[in-house]
Give the backbone structure.
Amino acid sequence: MTTPSSTPSLRLDGRAFIHGQRVWAKAGARFDNISPVDGRLLCEVARCDDKDIDAAVLSARQAFDDKRWRGLAPAARKRVLIKWADLVTAHADELAMLETLDMGKPIRYAQSVDVNSTANCLRWYGEAIDKVYDEIAPTPAHALALITREPMGVVGVIVPWNYPMIMAAWKIAPALASGNSVVLKPSEKSPLTALRLAELAMDAGVPEGVLNVVPGFGTEAGSPLALHMDVDCIGFTGSTRVGKHIHIMAGQSNLKRAWTELGGKSPFIVMDDCPDLERAVQTAVGSIFFNQGESCNAPSRLLVHHKIKEAFLERALQLLPQYQPADPLHKDTVMGAIVDRTQMDTVLGYIKQGQNEGAKLLAGGHAARTESGGFYIQPTVFDAVQSHMTIAREEIFGPVLSVMTFNDVSQAVQIANDHVYGLQASIWTRDINCAHGVARALRAGTVHVNQYDEDDITVPFGGYKQSGMGRDKSLHAFDKYTELKTTWIRIDSPV
Ligand code: NAP
Ligand code: MG
């Protein structure tokens, strides 16, 4: 356990959380957790493997079988989840600092977005669970058919590093609310908040074994979880490449339910009758550079009608100085560090490829703040991007905007849908027919009209096509962590 020099009171504990205890990996292996803020060592983290996954799954299974959690009334689970949410809020500064040091996002957003959304998610599913009812089917009078939902059992959760707490909460909250036990594998790049969240869960009254957190690498800790014969369901958020592998592993093992929230390359379409060009520019630029561009739903393909492209881009470039990366720990910073050197090199590689394939680099394109020892990239804008280019086809997951133009609405929709991903999309127009028509035509899980930033726990989040299957958030998330049971009862009525 260590404390960082910038915040001496902060406790950095990289041990796993299994059966209610902080433990090192059974084999004793550890890995260095480097902060992208300045490249310094934060702490060592338990490098868990299949033996630790076995221990966590066994603990989760025992907790499920003896009903210490699922046997509680929904109202009792509700009280625990709400208390947990309150504890997250009470530890907001600590959790935000851990998130920023671990993955580099600006501290202001770690507080206002990540901590708040996490607490809200836990509270919302806690509030919901004693308000959802089961069903009775409209069968003939001699029979009664009950359609009930039951928890699946042990749920494995594997999440990425871009919103470590939020991605975990979107799965853990509905899974635990509906009575499951959980084994969570956070990203090796950002394990610290998940581990702290588990401690707070126990403080709130989640019994031991019901929530376990097993840090480690994807192939060493993630694969054993996805392949485990005693895990009933896996909730995964991450890349499409690994997501496909998760489905294969589910099929190779016990056909566990597998839900995958994957990549995106979301189109942001601006028609020439855009009702508010200034707001459209601010929103496009703000959304692509938010979280350093490391967002699955970042609007990374900007499709602008050719008549307004020059005006749009002129204004967009004027805004870029606001998005120059700065110290993530400073309260005014809006763009922080890229999660690690590997990701920084990947993004810089895509930028080079964009130039090589003929896109026009308008701004940025280089690493920044190299003197800090951390990993930073300038906000980058490419013009003259064509659909076949790598920077239009692949998810860059960095602060890079690819600008394309179109001549009419059919061409815009054709370009937008010509993609393996279908996570989100946006259409900006004054014409109500165009708005509704395009919203229907776009193959995406969420379509925004004349905005991009609305988001709420009440609505489903997920994608079409290779952006994955299943939905996080909203009451629909319960579908992923419950089995439907039909119980037929014969009624030989004496009256
Ligand atoms: P990733 O490389 O796919 O990793 C995601 C998680 O899977 C990590 O915990 C990783 O572990 C683990 N993993 C890697 N290989 C594995 C394997 N063979 N078996 C089991 N687990 C394995 O994705 P990422 O780079 O962390 O995250 C970025 C991606 O997430 C982007 O594609 C983004 O679009 C997507 N994302 C999607 C959503 C959504 O809701 N649709 C939301 C956020 C992010 P280690 O990294 O520790 O090795
Ligand atoms: Mg880290």
User: Anything to note?
Assistant: Residues 33, 102-103, 189-190 surround magnesium ion (ligand 2) (CB under 6 Å). The radius of gyration is 23 Å.
